[in-house]
Amino acid sequence: MDQCGELEIMTDSVDVKTLTAPPSFTGKTALVTGAGKGLGRACALGLAAAGARVIGVARTEGDLKEVQSSAVGKFDYWVEDVIEDRLYKRIEEMDHLDILVGCAGGNKPEPVTDITTETLDWMLGLNVRAIFRASQSAAKVMLRQGSGIIINMSSQMGHIGAPNRTLYCTTKHAVEGLTKALAVELAPQGIRVNAVAPTFIDTPMTRPMFENEEFKKTVENNIALGHVGTIEDVAAAVMFLASENAAMVTGESLKVDGGWTAW
Questions:
Q1: What is the per-residue pLDDT for 5?
Q2: Closest residue by Cα to residue 195 from 132, 255, 259, 125
Q3: What is the set of domains in the chain, with CATH numbers?
Q4: How far apart are CA 208 and CA 108, in angstroms?
Q5: Average pLDDT score, the chain
Q6: Residues 6+ apart with CB under 8 A from 49
Q7: Torsion angle, alpha carbons of 252, 256, 257, 259, to 10
Q8: Is the dihedral of CA 87, 57, 174, 141 positive or negative?
Q9: Is pLDDT at 10 greater than 70 in this prediction?
Q10: Phi/psi at 237 (nearest 5 deg)?
């Protein structure tokens, strides 16, 4: 108490510089799957612009060269298919890896009764097995060094259901479960694991869907903000989770859904 008998309120000091500093990944090594297009490309370019050395993974070298031309000196690439185990051997042989962003994925919307076993195997392989294997291989490197950050690209469909997206929802719910369990398992070793769950984003994969005006209107009506998201919206969420600003965040799914799941 002070001399007047009034209780003094003591407050902790706040490091304003830390709160206001933009993300910096200088000296960090990041690996981004699906880096040739869409969300993966935006994440790779964002991390590179913030100082990271980025290794981009995709099947099409031409796409990767385009990314490299926009991030000169900060972007290397591996022409690999995430379905093939060769990629994961390369990851496990890395000397150091600070950040993994698993962006490779796909979708084929159709009624559940029309889904073939070929489509089932393809989507489980791309959306679940590849995300799992990348996380597993990155974890082996990160456990050796005692630190690291894993970010899995999920979807709002990992939190809800939707017609003609039964299989896609199945795969993204699996990514959510993987993220939570892996976060709990790796937290004692200083490794954070999170997911980003976007709504419909303007990407090469979704643009053909939006050619259907009725479908586009339905999507926009379900997003509380009234419009689809951008690849920059998603990349910003990834960069936050990869930064020290999210040092106390693990096992979470950051929904970039414009309020879709808040209804």
A1: 57
A2: 255
A3: 24-256 (3.40.50.720)
A4: 12
A5: 94
A6: 71, 74
A7: 80
A8: positive
A9: no
A10: -65, -40
Query: Which pLDDT score, from 0 to 100, does residue 1 have?
Result: 47
Strand spans (E) along the chain:
29-33, 53-58, 75-79, 99-102, 148-153, 191-198, 253-256
188 neighbors 145 (Cβ within 8 angstroms): no
pLDDT in tens, 145-181: 999 999 999 999 999 999 999 999 999 999 999 999 9
- Per DSSP, 250 falls in state -
Average pLDDT over residues 30-44: 97
User: In angstroms, rounded to a whole number, what is the distance separating the alpha carbons of residues 241 and 237?
Assistant: 6
Q: 200-254 pLDDT, tens per residue?
A: 999 888 899 899 999 999 999 999 999 999 999 999 999 999 999 999 999 999 9
Token pair of 163, please?
């017609």
Strand ranges of the sheet holding 148-153, from the earlier edge strand across to the other edge: 75-79, 53-58, 29-33, 99-102, 148-153, 191-198, 253-256
| Per-residue pLDDT, 32 | 98
Q: Which are the catalytic amino acids? A: 168, 172
Residue 5: CB partners within 8 Å, gap ≥ 6? none
Give pTM, 2 decimals: 0.93
What sections of 161-212 are H helices per DSSP? 166-186, 207-210
DSSP 171: H
8 A C-beta contact, residue 147 and residue 190: yes
Query: Locate tokens 């979470």: which residue?
Result: 252
Where does residue 189 rank: exposed (0-12), middle (13-18), buried (19+ CB within 10 A)? middle
